[in-house]
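Sanity check record (used in CI):
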Amino acid sequence: MRNTVSELQGYFCPFGSLDIRAVCKIGDDLDMSENELFDIINDFRESIGSESWDSIDPVY
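Expected output for MafI family immunity protein:
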C-alpha cells in the first residue's frame, strides 16, 4: 500500500517534499502567505503555457 499512497500523493502534489520545504522557507523569509506563494507559482505555470503542475519547478 505504501507504493500506492506514494504514487497517489504524486498526482496531488507532483513536487518532492524538499521542494515544498524550500518554497515554504522562501515564503517565510519574505513574510508571504500561502495564498501569495500559490499565486506566484500559478502565475509562473500559466506564463510558460503549462496546464500541468508537474512540468514546473516551484522553487525556480
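The chain has one domain: 2-55. If this sentence no longer matches the regenerated C-alpha cells, the check is flagged for review.
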